[in-house]
Design goal:
Length: 103
């Protein structure tokens, strides 16, 4: 079996340390007071949130109106399909019944 020879140890190179720059000490100053939580200040971000909220409400109202129109269209289609299935005699009976109930 072959034995491994240990690698010769290298001497560590001497590092030269540069002097650290002296830091300037800043004077302490009083932090500004926090404003109370419930105060209201209208900022540009507030304006942007108002615009986004208005856009969301407008899109919601538009979608609701589209849904109402689509549902009324489905109602008309259902009414037409029922009327086309009824024969003329049944239509006369229904019209008479409606006239009698309205009187």
């Amino acid at each position: 079996m072959a034995t491994k020879k240990a690698a010769p140890k290298k001497t560590a190179a001497k590092r030269t340390h540069s002097k650290t720059k002296s830091t300037t000490v800043r004077s302490f100053h009083v932090a500004p007071r926090d404003r109370p939580f419930w105060t209201f200040l209208f900022t540009t971000q507030s304006f942007y949130w108002v615009l986004i909220g208005a856009a969301v409400l407008a899109v919601g109202i538009y979608v609701a109106s589209l849904q109402i129109r689509i549902n009324s269209l489905y109602d008309q289609v259902d009414t037409n399909s029922v009327q086309s299935k009824l024969n003329k005699e049944e239509l006369k009976k229904l019209n008479q019944a409606l006239q009698n109930s309205s009187n």
